[in-house]
Design brief:
The chain is mainly alpha-helical and 180 residues long. Helices cover 47% and strands 10% of the residues. The protein has 4 helices and 3 strands. A 3-stranded antiparallel β-sheet has the order 1-2-3. The longest helix is centred in the middle third of the chain and has 23 residues, at 88-110.
């Protein structure tokens, strides 16, 4: 008897869509309003327009095409590789990671000079932490939730290395009674 694979949830799709829309709307606002000024909000938080042609935290400048390709592979792996029972935290996590990755890939594709060489719009600046955007928040928070979800589900599943479950019925165990 073969077990059917676990059902695949599509609950992550609306989460991903919300992250992409929020990300693109906030980036559009930042490009339109922060070209020649910064907006001081409170403490060290300000809105400061920046374009990142590298990867997270401004490292890997000029590696945009490689980073964009890797991001697309991650999206495909997450979406195609979903063979797990649906869970609310898992759906939120996958939706946030996929939505964030799509949001940043859109920038790499659509912004000058284009075709994976465009700069990702970053504008949330604490001045003591690298500048980031809504997509970055989705990827980071979703990644943490994905780890938590995976850890949580692994705690509730029996380990295959533990062998089959046995019940101790109180009877003495059978032993080899042959003497030498």
């Amino acid at each position: 008897m073969s077990a059917d694979p676990p059902p695949v949830s599509r609950g992550w799709v609306p989460i991903a869509a919300i992250v992409v829309v929020l990300d693109q709307l906030t980036k559009w606002w930042a490009v339109a309003n922060l070209q020649d000024r910064d907006v001081e909000l409170f403490w060290t938080l300000r809105l400061n327009l920046s374009y990142n042609t590298g990867m997270a935290f401004g490292t890997g400048q000029g590696w945009g095409p490689v980073i964009g390709a890797v991001a697309m592979i991650v999206i495909v792996v997450l979406v195609v590789g979903l063979r797990r029972p649906p869970s609310r935290i898992g759906d939120v996590a996958v939706g946030m990671v996929v939505g964030g990755a799509i949001g940043n890939v859109i920038d790499r594709l659509a912004r000058d000079p284009g075709w994976l060489r465009g700069g990702v719009v970053d504008f949330i600046d604490f001045q003591w932490f690298p500048i980031f955007n809504v997509a970055d928040m989705g990827i980071t928070i979703g990644g943490v939730l994905l780890v938590m979800s995976s850890w949580r589900s692994s705690r509730h599943e029996p380990s295959p290395a533990a062998g089959p479950l046995t019940v101790d019925d109180g009877a003495p165990a059978e032993t080899d009674t042959e003497t030498r």
